[in-house]
Protein: GGDEF domain-containing protein
Amino acid sequence: MLKEAISQTQLREWQQEINDISAEFRLTITFDQIDVAAHSLQTLCISQNAKDLTSRQHQISLLQHISAPSDHVESSQSCSEVYHQLIRDAQGQLVAAVNFSSANDDREKPKLFTPLSAIQIRIATMLSKAISVYISTIDFGEQPNVSVAHDVDLQAFIDAFDEHIWIKNLEGIYIACNKSVERSWQKSKQQIVGKNDHDLFDSRTAEAFIEGDELAINTGSTVVVSECEDVDANYNKVWLETIKAPIKDEQGQLTAVLGMTRNIAEHKEAQEQLILAANVFQNAVEGVVITDKDGNITDINQAFTDITGYSRDEVLGRNPNILSSGRHPKRFFERLWNTLLVQGKWHGEIWNRRKHGAIFPQSITISAVFDKQNIIQYYVAVFADISVQKQNEEKLKNLAYFDPLTQLPNRMQFMSLVEQELNHSNRAKKQLAILFLDIDFFKHINDSLGHVIGDEILVELSKRLSYALSDFDVLARLSGDEFVVMLPGIMSTDSVTSSVDKIRSVFERPFILDNAQSVRLTASMGVAIYPSDGDDHDSLLRNADAAMHRAKLDGRNNYAFYTESMTKQAVEQLKLQTALHHALANEDFYLVYQPKLTLKNLSPCGFEALIRWHDPILGDISPAEFIPLAEKIGLIWDIGLWVLKAACLQGVEWLTEGKTFERISVNVASLQMQRNDFVDKVRQILLETGLPTKHLELEVTESCMMHNPEAIIHDLKLLGGMGIALSIDDFGTGYSSLNYLKRLPIDKLKIDQSFVGDIPHDANNTAIAKAVIALGHALNLQIIAEGVETEEQADFLRRNGCDLAQGYLYSRPKLPDALTEFLPLVNGIK
Structure:
């Protein structure tokens, strides 16, 4: 076989030479191996500009050429304007052919090819001879002595093709067809040969076939008469192309018409892919530029023009460095090309210059395109203008590191700056101060004047603070009304005090609003100093915050320096806070009950439910310690509902056991009363537990009236209307507004134990107790005294008309099982 006998190196050289000649002399060239014994053709080389249609025309023309009479075979010019040079081996056997054609540029003439010019024929002959000389030196071994022209059986030859091939004479009678035609038309050769199209097909199909024959005859060359979609024997969709060509004898007289139909599905698919790729190329949002192996631009798409401003004509043949911005050093491009040559691809960001001079950033991917010999033929660069992306990144960076309202550094940026300064201070053995600033009662500004005015004040404050500080100090806004200042390189606490005084002076001038209204503010500040108060930014900021809270506790409008005791106090509070969350989740609380007695005869009249907490690690924790913490961290609502439900369940249990009592009183925190759904929750718990409302009493404090008293009064009336008794706990220690007291739907007043403790020895407490009793009776309320511990206290209260009492004199708070003596059984139940 010729292909196996020719070296791959020689084939590559011929391929390159064919490409060069084809481009230089406007020729389409194919080099085909001819296997006479197997009746087959195989293309070994084909010029780059050759189309599938042209290649097929070459093979059809070659088939006609070598099937002609022997004295005509050796001629070089076929009737279809395809120039053939036949090549033989050393024994004279036909082994190959080089085929040449020149495209027809005259669109008014339907011919596919035009005759070769004299120079083209000369070049074709020279190339063919060069190939023939090489092939004549090849030793193919023993070859059968086959006569090229006379021993080739036309029927066997055309039967070797999968394509449908048939021949008609000038009268339109079929004189030959191959096996593929028989299978496709489902007719035998005997049923086809000797018949015309009207004999074989319906009139419409027959006329179409005859029209195709006439077109080939009239043009005198090969023509494509139809392309259509069909279904093969396996019901798969295929694309069929029908080609017809005139056959002439040695005198050039027309003798017959050759027809061939072949499946061009792959060609169609490739064509569609090319069209799709072209559309994608032109309509892509990204810019695309293609260069040859030397880096010269061969093509661009519309997006390239839109992005850079350069038209196609302005850049073709030029190097992409016309876009160079000058921002990148030579070493940058050396690394780029090294990566591209080694890996075949490079991706990154490059700053380029538009036609009008503007510099812009682009994200770009450059890929090398290799041929079959792994040699780079083209470079393709796909890029996107990321100017907007860069701008957005800058905005996001600004949002990430700066407060959007005041444009001051935010917490993240401040921490980063502090960490840098700490490294410097550590090396230089210098001190550094962190000052934490919180505006006093700023929430009142937002609530009364609105958040817009509040924001205006914060912006003005940030400007004033910036002016008051030096260029070396760093001011940041952490959140809301919290600011923080870093004072680097301090020499002593005096320099810190001086800076604090400058900051405090900022608040001496009022803040003037748009409506000419003025607002005065104060601030509480805490100071922590590196390295004595912390050696990292977290501990310094935390300790400065602790010092600021200490300043607030000391009366606000003040400042305080951090001390070690603040940290210990904060750590203990954090432990307690964590344990409190776990106690609520695990229901580690329990209730004890302190009896209430009628002073007149000491008969039991009810109990006060009191919460207790025993933590497995921290031990017993007093309610005076964890109740304020629960209010501070927002757990008092859940704890209060748990206490109410547990007390109601205990009351139901006592009633079920046949025990009797008047009411169980449950304390209600001020924050509970402020919830809109408190009444609904009480009603829900009573329904779930089944405790009658006549056995429940709620104790509220005076402080609950400080927030929205009208709503509180409304809710208390709803609770009273349900049959729940209401009492004021710790009367005289809180709000003590007689105006609201007379409007409250309450049943009892409880004298706080702070007034009972020194009775009857303290004249003031004695007078207060008498006044509370008299006031309560005047309002038709029962009076109960808590914290009664001595008989003297009890006698005094009894003489002055106090109705009820509770305290250690009668009983400490106890677990339910220890209260049997205070729970008489219902009559008739033993």
About this structure: The chain is about 40% helix and 25% strand. The two ends are 121 Å apart (CA to CA).
